[in-house]
Amino acid sequence: MRLKALAAGTLLMAGAIAVSTASTAHAATIRYEAEAAPATCDGTIDSNHAGFSGSGFCNGRNATGAAAQFTVNTTTGGPASAVIRFANGTTTSRSASFIVNGTTIQTLSFEGTGAWTTWSSKIVNFNASAGNSTIRISPTSSGGLPNIDFLDFVVEGPPPPTNTLFVATNGNDGNPGTQAQPLLTIARAVTLAQPGTTIMIRGGTYSPSTNIQLTKN
Ligand code: GCU
Ligand code: CA
């Protein structure tokens, strides 16, 4: 078993464990504006609600499947994040599938932001392949998408080894421990680890209440 992003000892003491990703060299974030080709918008490019970046935003048709699509590019694949900036001036959440190269990674819920001029963001973690990838944000109900401003894309590191369990501060110990569905606690990852497993701990602060013993090979 290997621990990444954390100095590994045989005993991790209870208390706050801060994992910083700042020292890890990674590529710069690239901003893909929803109004700029090769992005597509099944709707109109509008600019009537202030606070957007670039020259406008995608106002999708209020219909199931009326998607905003981005084409992102990376020379090296690996664990990546996409930050989607959006505004939803209604009081009803709008949900959408986050689809990478045809595979649904996650369903996102875009909650009301209070006003069409109030912009917020959602982050999605996934494993990016080298080259171009299409990222489609496709609404699952007739309300359609929120207004979509841009997608910020960054590859955070080299591809993880096979048999990697991911831990993240927004994870859940009922999850399988994949990058898209990470675990919440290091202790749970240690429990699930088998010989050859790598435990990847994403940035953040972890506060285990009991010591974590690494008693496996
Ligand atoms: C309003 C708003 C649009 C928005 C739309 C919607 O018309 O001005 O920007 O896209 O509502 O409900 O989707
Ligand atoms: Ca709309």
Describe the structure.
By secondary structure, this protein is mainly beta. Helix content is 3%, strand content 43%. It contains one helix and 18 strands. Strands 5-8-13-10-11 form a five-stranded antiparallel sheet, with no helix packed on it. Strand 10 (94-100) and strand 11 form a beta hairpin. The protein starts with a strand and ends with a strand. Mean pLDDT is 89; it is low at 5-11. It binds alpha-D-glucopyranuronic acid (GCU) and calcium ion (CA). The site of calcium ion (CA) has 5 residues, from strand 7.
Question: What attributes characterize this protein structure?
Answer:
217 residues, mainly beta, 4-stranded antiparallel sheet, 1 helix, 43% strand, binds alpha-D-glucopyranuronic acid, binds calcium ion
